[in-house]
Specification:
The chain is built from eight helices and ten strands. By secondary structure, it is α+β, with helices and mostly antiparallel strands. The chain is elongated.
Length: 236
């Protein structure tokens, strides 16, 4: 049997909480405020979160005192304060982590981030810095801070990679099973072209013809009007 010819292969990212979708290429260029659904915390609001939600007492005056440049106090100065007081956070039942999405082979942008949480208040405070290109070990933008409430979705976990493949024999919808988009769960398969419910990219290459010429029976591309960032994530 001739392999079905792929006429359109669209990767997109869906926020599983809002249902909003954007093209993968758009998601890879997403900014921090689009990613978190709101503007980063200003210094005053950030200190308030550190006090009220993390339970670490700090004033603006103390922040100025510990700042590397007292004339230009910034978000990273507050981050350094929290890192110096992680033991106090842990003593209160809280926790912290530091990671970089580069370690995940993630489909999204390269982001270096710290996250902190306290109990029983809930919620999570993120300090993030976006990679600006080049060597991923260097060249990051300045840290920005965002607070994600107890009942709000963690954007690092709520974005799902999906794939819709149009062939001359029908449409296939896939959901990524990993961070890099190599293994897929079959969400729908109109004509039963795939025999298994889970496939890898290598499996798909064997079943479908990604290099053939589209036939006259090619299905219409359903993604011409895929929405952009507007509506992708609700504002906070």
């Amino acid at each position: 049997m001739t392999r079905p010819i792929v006429t359109q292969d669209t990767h997109m990212v869906t926020d599983v909480n809002t249902g909003g979708s954007i093209l993968l290429s758009q998601f890879q260029e997403i900014t921090s405020d689009e990613f978190f659904g709101g503007s980063p915390l200003g210094l005053t609001d950030l200190i308030e979160v550190v006090n009220n939600d993390l339970g670490l007492g700090i004033t603006l005056e103390e922040t100025i005192e510990i700042a590397e440049d007292p004339e230009n106090v910034n978000t990273e100065d507050v981050l350094n304060y929290i890192l110096d007081h992680k033991s106090e956070l842990a003593a209160g039942g809280g926790g912290s982590s530091h990671d970089n999405t580069l370690n995940w082979s993630w489909f999204g942008p390269t982001i270096d981030f710290h996250s902190f949480y306290a109990l029983p208040e809930g919620g999570r405070l993120f300090f993030v810095r976006w990679h600006a290109g080049g060597d991923p070990r260097y060249n990051y933008l300045n840290y920005e801070a965002f607070f994600v409430g107890e009942y709000d979705a963690d954007p690092f976990q709520s974005n799902r990679l999906e794939r819709e493949i149009e062939t001359d024999h029908g449409q296939i919808y896939l959901i990524a099973e990993d961070a890099e988009g190599y293994s897929w769960e079959v969400g729908s398969d109109e004509e039963g072209l795939l025999k298994n419910g889970y496939l890898t990219n290598d499996d798909l290459e064997k079943v479908l013809d990604f290099k053939g010429k589209p036939s006259k029976r090619a299905a219409k591309n359903l993604f011409e009007s895929l929405p952009g960032l507007e509506g992708y994530r609700r504002a906070v």
